[in-house]
């Protein structure tokens, strides 16, 4: 044997020291290694000897500090932005000669600034809500098709195309909406006005075309990919055993989806819709290019006109003076508040039935 | 209520892979039949063929005849959902719907069948939960999530959900393999009780369980991996466990398999 203990000597033993490493780390139950075994002279890995002291500066504490700093930075940035916005907005708001919340026009650059957020906020919400009403049912149908109906060969490339749609810059959507899509929308608006003009939303005497309807439809196309790919993701995560349970109870495919897939995916779908709404509310250039830029509060969606907070900022920032910029920043604060409220409402909906989700295996 | 199941020359395929070969057996009404055998021998495939659940997997198909009271469930004009309503199934892992309460889980099948009347649903929920020996444990918290129960309770909830639609046959695919001995005993007691109303087929890896609960036992085996599973022996449980006709069966139940 000598310095090189043969394999067979260890192999037939089974108990003491299959390798010296194991023997070194084991407790007192294992017989001592022969002193001539070189490897046995290493410091033991798991037991025996004095415990090593703790390192004062380790990866552990370093990473902990790094991640804490990153977390704190978010708060600092948010507070800094808020302070900046408020400090710019307050002088403009105090110079305003009209009520900011209810006035329906935007003349902040005059000697006596007059401006109000009412029409802009209304247009923002109306265009976003219509966009979601159009986009969400279609997005859910596409998502279910991709996750449960389409054969895999078709689902993968189609999903990729949907994601590609999300990559189109919004200015492209805006130009397309203004130069190409506005014509069919105008024709459709005239048709709606002719046959459904007795409904206030489709009333009016024209001109039609660059309306809330056009802006909303362009927005709908823009939020469609977000809602679709997130919903598809959650639908695919439905546990197979729950789908089987529904099928074994005699459910058809659609009944199975209603019983197992949709309830399971509901929180995710709500989150997806809220992300889409966030995009729609904040969308700037596409609406700036497609809306008719009027300051009215009207539920008529086909008559040329409409405006939104973000579009108004893009359209008027260039010729704004100091007060004008402050006024626009104030409008940005309102948009921020609206988005915040929407997000909190979504969280409330998601958390309401939390126990039903968290207990799910 | 309970019906006779007759399989004749049933072979099942997943794509080009033949999972079970030429299985023929008859299951009498209101009996418990246990299917035993090593893993991968086709017990579960056969069980899932009985209520056409194996079709859920793409590429799965079957040859041969499977009849319930002389009606071939694979006839082209048979509605597969009707078959599954008639032949309920309990799965290996408890799978209550996670978004539903205990009550909603119990009546999920009835709601799928279009029952909307509250009083009917209430009665059915109580009846099925009582039948599943679960009522006393959950009657005060019917609106709590079904997934919040213990594993054994969840499995009994799944049994309640299955029997609430009043099937003729209940298939159980290793219903106790994820449960502790006490919960297992509760499910076995339940099976004796349900035998009065349903025909039960159970797949199990636990031979003591097969010996305890079943009237008849079928032993499945494969020659080697990649070969289709075959039914080696099918007889009274008493006979299989005391005096099996086949050497293979004897080897398996005495633990000398493989």
Automatic annotation (TrEMBL), chain A:
Residues 121-346 form the ABC transmembrane type-1 domain. One of its GO terms (molecular function) is phosphate transmembrane transporter activity. The keyword DNA damage does not apply. The keyword Cell membrane applies. The chain crosses the membrane at residues 66-86, 115-146, 158-176, 208-227, 284-302, 322-346. Its main location: membrane. PANTHER family: PHOSPHATE TRANSPORT SYSTEM PERMEASE PROTEIN PST, PHOSPHATE TRANSPORT SYSTEM PERMEASE PROTEIN PSTC. Belongs to the binding-protein-dependent transport system permease family. CysTW subfamily. Part of the binding-protein-dependent transport system for phosphate; probably responsible for the translocation of the substrate across the membrane. This is Phosphate transport system permease protein. It comes from Pseudosporangium ferrugineum. The lineage of its organism: Bacteria, Bacillati, Actinomycetota, Actinomycetes, Micromonosporales.
UniProtKB/TrEMBL annotation, chain B:
Residues 5-247 form the ABC transporter domain. InterPro entries: AAA+_ATPase, ABC_transporter-like_ATP-bd, ABC_transporter-like_CS, P-loop_NTPase, PstB-like. GO terms for molecular function: ATP binding; ATP hydrolysis activity; phosphate transmembrane transporter activity. Keywords: ATP-binding, Nucleotide-binding, Translocase, Transport. The keyword Glycoprotein does not apply. It holds the Pfam family ABC_tran. It comes from the Bacteria. GO terms for biological process: phosphate ion transmembrane transport. One of its GO terms (cellular component) is membrane. The keyword Metal-binding does not apply. This is Phosphate ABC transporter ATP-binding protein (PhoT family).
């Amino acid at each position: 044997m000598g310095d090189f203990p043969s394999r067979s000597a260890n192999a037939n033993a089974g108990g003491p020291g299959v390798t010296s490493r194991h023997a070194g780390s084991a407790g007192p139950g294992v017989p001592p290694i022969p002193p001539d075994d070189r490897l046995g002279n290493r410091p033991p890995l798991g037991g025996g000897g004095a415990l090593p002291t703790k390192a004062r500066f380790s990866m552990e504490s370093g990473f902990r500090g790094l991640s804490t700093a990153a977390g704190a930075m978010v708060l600092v940035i948010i507070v800094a932005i808020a302070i900046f916005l408020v400090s710019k907005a307050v002088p403009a708001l105090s110079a305003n000669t009209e009520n900011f919340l209810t006035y329906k026009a935007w003349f902040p650059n005059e000697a006596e600034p007059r401006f109000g957020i009412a029409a802009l906020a209304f247009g923002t919400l109306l265009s976003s809500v219509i966009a979601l009403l159009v986009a969400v049912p279609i997005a859910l149908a596409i998502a279910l098709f991709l996750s449960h109906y389409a054969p895999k060969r078709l689902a993968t490339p189609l999903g990729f195309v949907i994601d590609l749609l999300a990559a189109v810059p919004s200015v492209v959507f805006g130009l397309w909406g203004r130069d190409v899509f506005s014509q069919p929308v105008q024709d459709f608006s005239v048709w709606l006005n002719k046959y459904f003009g007795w409904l206030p939303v489709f009333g009016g005497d024209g001109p039609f075309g660059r309306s809330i309807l056009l802006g909303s439809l362009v927005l709908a196309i823009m939020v469609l990919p977000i809602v679709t790919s997130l919903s598809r993701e959650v639908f695919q995560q439905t546990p197979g055993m729950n789908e089987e349970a529904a099928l074994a109870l005699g459910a058809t495919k659609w009944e199975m989806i209603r019983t197992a897939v949709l309830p399971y995916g509901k929180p995710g779908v709500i989150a997806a819709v809220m992300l889409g709404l966030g995009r729609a509310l904040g969308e700037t250039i596409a609406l700036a290019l497609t809306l008719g830029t009027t300051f009215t509060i009207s539920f008529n969606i086909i008559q040329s006109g409409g405006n939104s907070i973000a579009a108004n900022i893009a359209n008027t920032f260039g010729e704004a003076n100091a007060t004008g910029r402050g006024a626009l920043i104030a409008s940005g604060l309102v948009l921020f508040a609206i988005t915040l409220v929407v997000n909190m409402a979504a969280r409330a909906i998601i958390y309401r039935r939390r126990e039903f989700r968290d207990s799910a295996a | 209520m309970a019906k006779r199941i007759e399989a004749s020359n049933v072979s099942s395929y997943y794509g080009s892979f033949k999972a079970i070969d030429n299985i023929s057996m008859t299951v009498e009404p209101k009996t418990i039949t246990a299917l035993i055998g090593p893993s991968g021998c086709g017990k579960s495939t056969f069980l899932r063929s009985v209520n056409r659940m194996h079709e859920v997997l793409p590429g799965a198909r079957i040859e041969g005849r499977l009849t319930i009271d002389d009606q071939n469930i694979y006839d082209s004009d048979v509605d597969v959902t009707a078959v599954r309503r008639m032949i309920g199934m309990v799965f290996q892992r408890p799978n209550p719907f996670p978004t539903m309460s205990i009550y909603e889980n119990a009546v999920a099948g009835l709601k799928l069948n279009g029952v909307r009347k509250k009083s009917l649903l209430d009665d059915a929920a109580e009846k099925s939960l009582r039948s599943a020996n679960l009522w006393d444990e959950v009657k005060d918290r019917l609106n709590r999530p079904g997934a919040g129960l213990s594993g054994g309770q969840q499995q009994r909830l799944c049994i309640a959900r299955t029997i609430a639609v009043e099937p003729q046959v209940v298939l159980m695919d290793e219903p106790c393999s994820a449960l502790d001995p006490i919960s297992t005993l509760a499910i076995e007691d339940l099976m004796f009780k349900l035998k009065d109303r349903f025909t039960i087929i159970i797949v199990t890896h636990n031979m003591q369980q097969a010996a305890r609960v079943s009237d008849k036992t079928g032993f499945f085996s494969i020659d080697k991996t990649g070969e289709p599973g075959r039914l080696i022996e099918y007889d009274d449980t008493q006979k299989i466990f005391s005096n099996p006709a086949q050497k293979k069966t004897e080897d398996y139940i005495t633990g000398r398999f493989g």
